[in-house]
Design brief:
The protein has 87 residues and is an alpha+beta fold. It contains four helices and four strands; from the N terminus they run E-H-E-H-E-E-H-H. The chain has a four-stranded mixed sheet. The chain is globular and about 40 Å long.
């Protein structure tokens, strides 16, 4: 199956969980957009306010927040991630 979903990840440096999320997505061979908020504290605060999410990475699939790295890993381990991205 091919990727039909758009994936966007907001990150900042340093962030080992961001690196792990990128590695997981790279291993899947999927295309995704990375938005680096390291030097954009106002943008990070806006996202925190809009989503209620307090940490990075913030990973969106089709503009829906799925969570951070551990949430992405859980979706993968439960066999649900492929369906979200390729469905």
């Amino acid at each position: 199956m091919t990727q039909t979903a758009t994936i966007k990840m907001y990150k900042k440096n340093p962030c080992p969980y961001c690196d792990r999320a990128k590695a997981l997505l790279d291993d899947k061979g999927w295309k995704y957009e990375v938005v680096d908020l390291t030097d954009k504290p106002a943008e990070l605060e806006r996202l925190k306010s809009e989503t209620g999410w307090r940490t990075v990475p913030m990973i969106f699939i089709n503009d829906k927040l799925v969570g951070g790295y551990s949430d992405l890993r859980t979706l993968e381990d439960d066999g649900k991630l492929d369906a979200m991205v390729q469905g």
